[in-house]
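agent> fetching stored inputs for the s-citryldethia Coenzyme A docking request
agent> found them:
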Amino acid sequence: MENDATLTIGENAYALNIIEGTESEKAVDISSLRKQSKFITFDDGYGNTGSCESSVTFIDGDKGILRYRGFDIADLATSSNFLETSYLVIYGELPSANELDLFKERVYKFAKLPDEVISAIHAQPKNSHPMGVLAAGLQSLGGAYPHYCTNDRKADLDCFDESAALIISTVRTIAATRHRFLLNEGVPESNPTASYCQNFLSMMFGNDSSSEDIPASVINALDLIFLLHADHEQNCSTSTCRMIASGGANPFASLAGGVSALWGPLHGGANMAVIKMLNQIHDAGDDGSRFIESAKQGKTRLMGFGHRVYRNYDPRAKILKSACDDALEALGVSSPILEIARRLEEEALKDPYFVERKLYPNVDFYSGIILQALGFPTDMFTVLFAIGRTPGWLAHWKEIAETGKKIHRPRQIYQGSPLRPYSALEKR
Ligand code: SDX
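agent> prediction call returned; pasting tokens
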């Protein structure tokens, strides 16, 4: 759609193009605005700004729609699995049986970490958070495979199938290696014949029982959680990955940046914050109503609620809410905090404060309850989010590398001091 928008500033009118997406989203293309008018636009936090055109994921926040490469998240949750969905997110199509076997073979062969990476993980300060260790582990991994991270876009793309499989495989091993090290349990043994989640659970909690003894319900619950986290278009951490990729940096550097961005409590760190919140409510003998009041007064936030894009129920939360019952029943565990979560949701969804602000449960509200029931330590919950999000981050690195986008460099409006002369120290 050429020149369908006109921006009038004072006496001047500026013709701008309109871009329309395949799902009829529309944007005013302002890429010529500064050249035409010397004006830039301002959008603190980018809530109204499209940073790119992408084909990976579509979200309709008003309708609560989430699709990976055109496939609805509910269909994938019902019929697919994490590795097949990872292939879809990265390569754009569901794999044939042969393509999936080849992808799995590539991923499974990389499960073992090089010794120098294991040493780097063990060398992290003892109080390092698992997310900090994961980011450091990814950079160390790149150091162990220098031919996969040359920072030459063509060279890094040529080996992307291998480097992507390596990263998808070893984010599990980095997480499990650190966990077992802190327990003084040595280096986990990877079982290359076990499935993706089976091997990860075995590396995490492996004891005398082999990975074959892990109940299918546990494996399936974790696989679902990873699948639901696989991508979510231009969220804070994915946009960070794209920003880093736009400078020509390799996938290891890009994903280490994504891990760092995901760590924040307003983003991926929320799944840890939800469990902490639910435990606090439980320990205070509160049925949730006191906590909701404090959230309404702005004293705290109902973690796991609200979203920058969804102004409706996050479809992932809907799937996880029902998966909670199945997982807890299959695990034979009850969860007092699940009942509290249910009550919080019920109360919030009929409270004008939340209704007026269109605050609904997001992906983090129920995921932590399942992860806690699976036996993961709370401070690893965001690492598990990162493991799930790895294919999405890789898909966006690939999209930037293939489209050869310019380096991302937003503008600003300067609000600092006007020009002033230097004053000698003795005069200050
Ligand atoms: C993820 O972007 C993605 O796609 C992210 C993600 C992904 O898959 O990558 O979906 C994963 O990060 C999910 C979000 C996880 N974070 C949380 O659960 C933390 C709790 N939620 C909030 O902090 C908040 O809702 C955000 C950060 C998620 C969104 O914030 P917004 O859209 O910027 O909303 P806002 O801060 O402008 O708040 C609008 C109003 C404010 O009240 P008023 O000033 O109008 O009176 O809503 C209130 C806020 O105080 N509000 C909340 C609230 N979230 C917003 N009040 C209580 N509890 C909350 N959770």
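agent> quick read of the result: Residues 232, 235, 266-268, 270, 295, 298, 301-309, 357, 359, 362-364 surround s-citryldethia Coenzyme A (CB under 6 Å).
agent> awaiting further instructions
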